[in-house]
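COMPLEX REQUEST
Ligand: NAP
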Amino acid sequence: MIIIFRFDVSKEKLSSITKCMVKKVYNWGILAPGNIARKFATELQQLDNAHIYAVGSRNAQRAKEFAEEFGAERYYDNYYDLVADAEVDIIYIASPHGLHAEHALLCLNHQKPVLCEKALALNQKEVDSMIACAHENNVFFMEAFFTPHQPSYKEAKRVIESGELGKVKYIQGWFGFNKAPYDNSLRLMNPKLGGGALLDIGLYPVFDALYFLGEPDQIIGRADFSETGVDQGVSIRFDYPDGVTASIFASFVAASGLGTDIFCEFGTLRLRRSSAVDQSLDVERPGSEVKHYKWEASVCGLKQEAAEAMKCLDENRFESEIMPHSMSLKLIKTLDIIRHKSGIVYPERD
Ligand SMILES: NC(=O)c1ccc[n+]([C@@H]2O[C@H](COP(=O)([O-])OP(=O)(O)OC[C@H]3O[C@@H](n4cnc5c(N)ncnc54)[C@H](OP(=O)(O)O)[C@@H]3O)[C@@H](O)[C@H]2O)c1
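STATUS: Structure written out below.
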């Protein structure tokens, strides 16, 4: 006996089925090909729905070299032409943070979705304007902040939310490196570009405290300044109800690496990331064996940020649930308070 199945599929239905089956490949435009843009592009190459299509630099030779290195078919000697290229689907902004607001507005006003490096901008006013511009243009916008994409953080959050260690009582977070002697012409040392430890690295432990404890009732901050006037070190304390505190430091003069210890009523979580961004999490409970988790650098977050941005575009979403606008706002609002308390100033921007 021969059984014949008849499929009665309309043209429209067939086209929507085909669309679901064929994954869209996004043409990425890279704005400002510096250090992190190279790392990001290396990870982008590992995603099958991402194509490094174009790059824009202030310098034609730098743009050409980057395009050759990553196989991009277009390169521009300015950012405007990159943004105006109709074939670009999404732009990754990797300029110094003092320029992020200007560059994000340029992209968003050209209807280009944006994944913008941290720090999202120099202050809340700038971030407000970027988010408002994304809303006005109905365009996707997300801060490239790797922490919430990392499996170590997801596991730490799961343990805390399970209640098995009780309530969080204290957090200690730090991020430091020492690359002295510093070249004062570097963006890190330039206050006009938002240089300094707080916005470069301090925002990671600040984010951790906000992520695990929420916004504090009171903030104390103290900074130590370089000869160029940037904060080469900053110490911060967050106070919460019931004596709960977070102590944080960020430094260009102490080679501490990046870590966060979360002390709970019945145990401690220790999050660590090496310079190669391998991550680990130790869960310690008095009287029990330490649970040690380790993840390799390949899951550090740059690739995951890009994948999340493309997933949002696939689903026609304007913001990410993993790194929503509200989290970026909470972060910059807290950074503003820390700056005002510790005397950190970005000339002509406060
Ligand atoms: N997510 C992370 O892990 C991570 C790590 C490092 C840095 N970042 C962030 O990424 C951003 C870039 O950092 P980076 O270390 O890649 O910096 P970088 O190596 O100095 O690159 C920044 C690029 O921005 C462009 N630029 C435009 N105007 C500039 C100006 N006035 N001065 C200097 N550069 C200018 C330059 O490219 P062209 O001149 O070629 O256009 C330069 O190559 C910063 O906001 C930083 O916080 C994130």
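REMARKS: The pocket of NAP is lined by residues 32-37, 57-59, 62, 94-97, 99, 117-119, 144, 146, 187, 193, 200 (CB under 6 Å). The first helix runs from residue 11 to 21.
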